[in-house]
């Protein structure tokens, strides 16, 4: 049984771009804007997928919305830029904005990709085709929407080539309307990294985890003792919680875990205070100390259609065969988005990568170090060091297993 794990990746790339009113924003303003978009996306995804395991990447979702802006016009364009808070026209950063999003170095693998699937009978605008090909590992794929099985197979093959797993079984890939009008938007994100200090397989035990509903389950729980950055905080409503930082290899990325002090405190009470400013404040307020760390081991992936989430974000015309305006993609017919398929994966294990082999059951010696024990619902997110500032990479919560 897998953790109920609503996760959202966000590779926040820092560059200058323009707000909807046309004024330019700074490096730090864009970082904050993208963080707020990720938090908003997370809340909407949690509402629509609140009973399922899920992983969602704001980075690739943002790329999808940005890519659509190249071909959108009228109110369709307005809704897209309002959802993100900025537009991508008139900016000279096409080749550099997403440098490093797809990267494999020092034991870390980060891969983001986005693709448009358009019927082979649609004549695409050369201008749109050229711009899309230069945008954040994006691509255009021509398919045959009159053959849904073939289309599903082609999308599955594309996902497999980007994630190594492309099972789209059960995903509806056809909507009402002319096949020549349909566009499927597919985005993926995969993250895997190694800890700076690995957990020992010999110290992993089956330990109790109290779920959000109050029941107790035994889950594989990793353990180690290490010098870490740690802090204790409380919300405006005096709900206490703690935070610990676990760095990945190379110290460019760290996982920050947020744990309510009391099992009776709903995780949602802590999550409601999430914002770009509070995340920065918490992370910058941590102090170095020796801790006993207990963390559940998990692996999670998700595949779903983002149409409902986009609608909640105010993007509606793009999915309507009548009102959608994508004349910038093709003058031929009335294109609309029939699917917005998204897949993301993450895994957290003793060494930071996929684990194999049996887990040893051993008794742990008690130490005098303070304990951070994630044996109840908790939130975590990743931040990336970048020229003195930090960028949020992804965030998650674990409710139960």
UniProtKB/TrEMBL annotation:
InterPro entries in the record: Serpin_dom, Serpin_E3, Serpin_fam, Serpin_sf, Serpin_sf_1, Serpin_sf_2
UniProt superkingdom: Eukaryota
Signal peptide range in chain numbering: 1-22
Keywords: Signal
TM regions (residue ranges): none
One Gene Ontology CC term in the entry: extracellular space
Single GO molecular function: serine-type endopeptidase inhibitor activity
Gene3D superfamilies assigned to the protein according to its UniProt record, in alphabetical order: Alpha-1-antitrypsin, domain 1, Antithrombin, subunit I, domain 2
Domain Serpin residue range list: 39-401
Pfam families for the chain: Serpin
Family under the similarity heading: Belongs to the serpin family.
Protein name: SERP3 protein
Organism: Anhinga anhinga (Anhinga)
Gene that this polypeptide is encoded by: Serpine3
